[in-house]
Amino acid sequence: MRDLFEGLDDPVGSVPHPALNSVDELLALLERWVERDWLRALDRALVVFLHREVQDAPPLLLLAAALASHQLGRGHVCLDLATTLAAPDLALSLPPEGDDLNDPPPLPSQVLGSLTQQAWQAALAHPVLIEHGVTEGSGTTPLVRRDFAGTTRLYLRRYWQYEQDIRRQLSTRLEQPSRAQPHAHANVSSALPAALEALFPSAQPETLDWQKLACALACRSPFAVITGGPGTGKTTTVVKLLALLQALQLGEKESERPLRIKLAAPTGKAAARLNESIAKQVEELDLHSLASLGSSTSGKEPSVDRLRQAIPTQVSTLHRLLGSRPDTRHFRHHAGNLLPLDVLVVDEASMVDIEMMAALLNALPSRARLVLLGDKDQLASVEAGAVLGDLCQYAVSARYTPATCDWLKQMTGAAIPTAYQAKDGQALDQAITMLRVSHRFDANSGIGRLAQAVNRPLDESHGPADKRRAVRKVFKSDEQHKSYVDISQLRLENADDPALARLVVNGNPGGFPNHGQGRHDRQGQLLAPPTGYRHYLETLAAKRPPPSATLERERPLFDAWALDVLKAHGSFQLLCVLRKGPWGVEGLNPRIARALRRATLLEAGNHELEHGWYEGRPVLVTRNDYSLGLMNGDIGITLALPNPQAPARKLLRVAFSANDGSGRIKWVLPSRLQAVETVFAMTVHKSQGSEFTHTALLLPDAPNPILTRELVYTGITRARHWLSLVESGRGMLDDAVTREVTRISGLGQLSSTRGSSTSGGF
Ligand SMILES: Nc1ncnc2c1ncn2[C@@H]1O[C@H](COP(=O)(O)OP(=O)(O)OP(=O)(O)O)[C@@H](O)[C@H]1O
Predict the structure, then answer these.
(1) Which of 378, 407, 435 represents a domain boundary (last residue)?
(2) The pTM is what?
(3) What is annotated about its quaternary structure and interactions (predicted)?
(4) CA of 197 to the centre of ligand 1 (A)
């Protein structure tokens, strides 16, 4: 970014830019921004439309509309005038990847440099275009303006409406906890302590078990959030919660049917992962003491089998749950056709954007219970809104009121330490639990330590220098501390550094202490050393069905082969930050494919390798395809099937897991796949909701605004057992971990009285 600002005569824009006073000048400026990818064509089109509809719209209003629209593509729900004027160049996508820096158009800082907030606010008034000052916002203007706390926010109406819907729906749920379930409060309270004790048996009931607290609080309120880092037991807790809710329901004298529970996740990949882990946890959960409690409270004892069967293990995507329809953003289920369910659990909720969350809440019956699970510190969805992060702003300090603390003491036996109490805690705070103990990473885990060091926010006692030191320390070994066995650091000198090939082909086990040999997991199982892409390509060759077999006749044989290959593929993934340039997806994919070909693991001509299909090509689905039943984020591997009619000609098919726990494979003709890309390298954004045994996180060689601590944390936490951190330039890790994302939305303010929201908090 720095280079872009060099040589500018008037960097602060002391002379008013002509685009502030003339619509023609503004349109010409926006055109130049669009040409350079600083702005989306869509954002300019909105200005053209508004100007056509309303000829007297002031240029400053139109400029604000373009910038508000542009913020949506960058995850912000609205344009904040004070923030924009404080750092105008952050309002555009600067610099887009691969920008050539020649003849740059005027920067936003040059255009807005002479503008005061007062002057901009004064221009944001128009009876046809902007609604201003009406709390309910039932109008029809395309833009909505809200003033508070010394700034002004400009929304496109649709997004303002989503925020309103979410706030209204959540407030209603939080205000009426006892109305939410058939077995109302009194019964829950009498049965809960014993049920919690049955699910969380502990030698010292007074010790703080956050999982138990989460279960209790989620039973108490029809809306609950359970947040926590990787392996803190979100799935474990929710399985127990569902068992508890069903036990209470089935133990009711008059209840005939179990609760209708549905599980969902934002992407197919995340749904498949929960599918896998939840089925195992439900199977292993000891339900005997819980089932036997029924007789003591109501005289009715649900059998263990009935209880187990009443806990669902099938997870669907949110799109499927809501009933998406082709060619429309509207779903089959909405306020007029509610979802038929009593309890909904949404996993990986950090990836749910504001539009989806509003659609979900609108389609949820008012008596239904909603539980959101997720890691509040992960990157938010690529679309606008960071709903989970906004809701969980105060999760670290919990802010439980005296009433909540008393109730928790009665239900769980645990006394809440004063650090987690707040007399003025909001209703929303009482519905949130943060799980704080990782059961996947212990004190000996470098991945856990690194994630923790990266994730720690900057504050007065922990400045950027402290943070950089803490992060670097994880990689250092000295007399007191041996190197962590699960992490490795790799420096690449240039794009052709052979170390990259060593990493992606073999996994660079030599970068880990003892070559990754002799490590055990927490259950005492020996772990295989870290691998690269060689592993799945060798599995592909080793497990190939005989040439005489055909897919039509021997389907199970081929499905088993594809499953093995897909599983082996999950043992390594290279993640990167950018799309373009030598260190982006587009530059890395062909280089990795060529390295694998040199290692004789792939067979393909140059053209095929870069632009075509070949056996072993892994692909990522980039858009939901309902006709094929494939979801954005699904990964498939190209396999060559025997062709009995013409043995010399391969039949290429792409194998995808059916993701329904059945072990079935979808075999798809490559030509039918409309939106896929090669995925030897995957962006961290696309990797959300996935996990790989060995994850290699490659940082670019130059600073970039999207390289933030949330991104690095998300990349690191994709690693299950092994992490390679790859740096292609100096200081990029230092740079990234001290840059934090700020998402602008009104929901952030709404979760606290301190935020002085326009119409009160939750
Ligand atoms: N209280 C506990 N005591 C011991 N082990 C636990 C406990 N809670 C969870 N675990 C184990 O820790 C591992 C991670 O748990 P779980 O999958 O529930 O976490 P998660 O937060 O859902 O993880 P993810 O980050 O994958 O979403 C599992 O093997 C689980 O059995």
Answers:
(1) 435
(2) 0.84
(3) Heterotrimer of RecB, RecC and RecD. All subunits contribute to DNA-binding.
(4) 19
